[in-house]
Design goal:
Strand order of the largest sheet: 1-2-4-3-5-6-7-8
CATH superfamily: Alpha/Beta hydrolase fold, catalytic domain
Number of strands: 8
Number of domains: 1
Pfam families: Abhydrolase_1
Structural class: alpha/beta
GO molecular function, one term: hydrolase activity
Protein name: Alpha/beta hydrolase
Radius of gyration: 20 Å
Order of helices and strands: HEEEHEHEHHEHHHHHHHEHEHHH
CATH architecture: 3-Layer(aba) Sandwich
Helix content: 40-55%
Distance between the termini: 66 Å
Oligomer: single chain
CATH topology: Rossmann fold
Keywords: Hydrolase
Shape: globular
Length: 358
């Protein structure tokens, strides 16, 4: 190993250490609270691999990237609910909704889950294709392939919500003819540059990380552990607020840590600069659920409030003790809100009212 290689690797290690310090400082600055284990681990015996047993499929995106899917429920269901996960997550982020909505709604609802490009089981994209606009095109491709007819309800979290809004701006006719309702969880249409995780992502250390990936991706792969110190600690700490099941915490940490470093770097700028405000008129007449966590420091609740104010048919739900992953930590509250959205979307009124009442 020559001196230049040693120096470069030493530089990466330094970036990792500084990144960890920067992340810790940023988390303190924006009010992160220490997570404590719950008094009992209610999810000790939970099967978080539930989706692995569901029928699997592949959708080819417009640029050839493979998108892994899972489907639940009959093809002739009244509605297909498509779930779109967030940054550094996978389709399993909606584990509890997959489990509970199937029990609550039976054959009235079909569910489709997929891994975003560069996440989970889906294929590796080029860095240039990791844009919010492309996520919108991916979503339409998934709907067309897995639910070619009938109404759909879209449920999207964080970065997935940004992609959903991009799809609406790109394909207003498609939304008008096919989409019966929309849920936007912990997301924003625009103006995130000065709040939440965007403040952290503007740190000079993270700018250095982006430059390192662009300049020497093979070396960054070698130094993945160091690079993970830059972004993933933020995501780990910001997922939950207050006491949390150790099993649930480990499950979420593993999901985040499986995300390739190239995917993390490629989407950072897209998250920071996105603006999908053009989508809001497309959603104006639809039943919409806007849900956020009161302690979310990735997409602060103020973004949810602004989003709901611009959507006249929106129900705004503030989950008082939640951070950025309410669909996992407060699954019942989120699933109840989705029940109400399905009722508003016109799905099986009798079964829906029974579900909400039960």
């Amino acid at each position: 190993m020559n001196g230049r290689s040693v120096a470069m690797r030493g530089g990466l290690a330094t970036v990792g250490v500084l990144g960890a310090l920067a992340a810790a400082h940023a988390l303190r600055r924006i009010g992160a609270r220490v997570l404590w284990p719950a008094e009992r681990d209610e999810y000790r015996d939970e099967d978080f691999a539930l989706l692995d047993d569901d029928p699997a499929g592949i959708v080819i995106a417009s640029d050839g990237v493979t998108l892994a899917t899972r489907t639940v429920g009959p093809d002739d269901a009244e509605v297909t609910v498509v779930f779109v996960h967030g940054f550094c997550n996978a389709m399993e982020a909606f584990h509890f909704q997959r489990r509970d909505l199937a029990d609550r709604w039976g054959d009235s609802v079909r569910m489709v889950f997929f891994d975003q490009r560069g996440h989970g089981r889906s294929g590796a994209p080029t860095p240039e294709s990791c844009t919010v606009g492309q996520l919108g095109r991916d979503l339409v491709s998934v709907i067309e392939a897995t639910a070619p007819t009938g109404p759909v309800v879209l449920v999207a979290h964080s970065l997935g919500g940004m992609g959903l809004l991009a799809a609406a701006a790109q394909s207003p006719e498609f939304f008008a003819s096919r989409v019966a309702g929309v849920a936007l969880i912990c997301t924003a249409a625009a103006e995130v540059a000065g709040t939440g995780i965007a403040q952290v992502l503007s740190h000079p250390v993270i700018d250095g990380f982006r430059l390192a990936v662009r300049s020497a991706p093979a070396l960054v792969r070698f130094g993945r552990r160091a690079s993970k110190h830059v972004v993933t600690p933020i995501l780990h700490v910001s997922s939950f607020h207050g006491p949390v099941s150790p099993t649930l915490s480990r499950f979420t940490t593993m999901m985040i840590d499986r995300t390739p470093v190239e995917t993390i770097e490629a989407f950072l700028e897209a998250i920071r600069l996105h603006d999908e405000s053009a989508a809001l008129p497309v959603l104006a007449e639809l039943p919409v659920l806007v849900l956020g966590g009161a302690h979310d420091m990735v997409i602060p609740f103020v973004n949810s409030r602004v989003l709901a104010q611009r959507l006249p048919s929106a129900e705004l739900v503030r989950v008082a003790d939640a951070a950025h992953m309410p669909q996992l930590q407060f699954a019942d509250e989120v699933t109840d809100a989705l029940d109400r959205l399905l009722v508003r979307a016109g799905v099986g009124a009798d079964a829906g009212n029974e579900a909400v009442g039960g």
